[in-house]
Amino acid sequence: MSNDHSYRENSPIEQLRCHASTGDVRVLNYWLDQHSEWFETTATDEEKRERDNMRSLVETWTRIEIAHGKGAALNIDDPEVLSGLLCLPAGEFKYQIQNAICYKSIMGSDWHWLSAAVR
Q: pTM, whole model, 2 decimals?
């Protein structure tokens, strides 16, 4: 997403794909809401299934954050996620990073929520 201009030129589903591996509950949920009209009027059945899968991701991430604290589901291995977190106040940045590190530590090699059961 470093080239902001080309990102905005992407279709809504392509924009959502950029956020589907971040673990950021608020961002993906926001863009799902922003593009809801497009999904209802323009999206193909396959794109609607992909949207539904992304909604399931948000539910998974939310369960992780309820159990392990805000930010726990963040994919801190993604440089875009880390650069986005740098915009937060220092205390909030540290809190979310610590929760993500702790969750990753608890889950071991299965830390990533795409493959891990929520514990």
A: 0.80
